[in-house]
Specification:
eight-stranded mixed sheet; Rossmann fold; 8 strands; alpha/beta
Length: 213
Amino acid sequence: MIDEVIQVFERAAPEYDAWFDEHRFIYVSEIRALKRFLIPGGRSLEVGVGTGRFAVPLGIDVGVEPAPAMAVMARTRGIKVCRATAEALPFWDDSFDSAALVTVLCFLRDPFRSLLEATRVLKRGGQLLIGMIDKDSPLGRLYEAHQQESKFYRQATFYSVAQVLGWLKKLGYRKVQTCQTIFRDLRSITSLEPIKKGHAEGAFVVISARKTT
């Protein structure tokens, strides 16, 4: 059965996709932050590819997406999309050189299991790239306080960067780096946001880590 979160994205796929055009500076700022650590080349995967808005500029060619309407839009952008969930990826072990999860951890039933699956399909030395809303940032706390007002974030569970870093440590990752962007209220952003090292200030945080085994 398609759960409630997937149903929301299925019904509102065009609205979700249009958000990136309506908030162009936020979208491009997030892409720039992701590219700060991106290791190009090889076979790449995005878990929760959505409509392909991040996969295309990041050069990712394969995606996993459980909402059919979102998957259709990603395919029109040239992404090879498999209908599946993050907790059960339909790929062999050691299949990809990189795996990305962008603004998806907060929507997953079991984020740790999903990271375990992403780790399984990564080759040794492969890159895991995470883009997430940090619940411990000032804007992240605001997101969480007002999440019931958003049809998309109503069902979300926000996590702190510290918690995700703890999961990655448990999974044996190394060379872990973080950077951050989106420091102002979304309504006041009319230009590109800066990118800074670390985390705790910016709402959008990028984590890059390398698989050790």
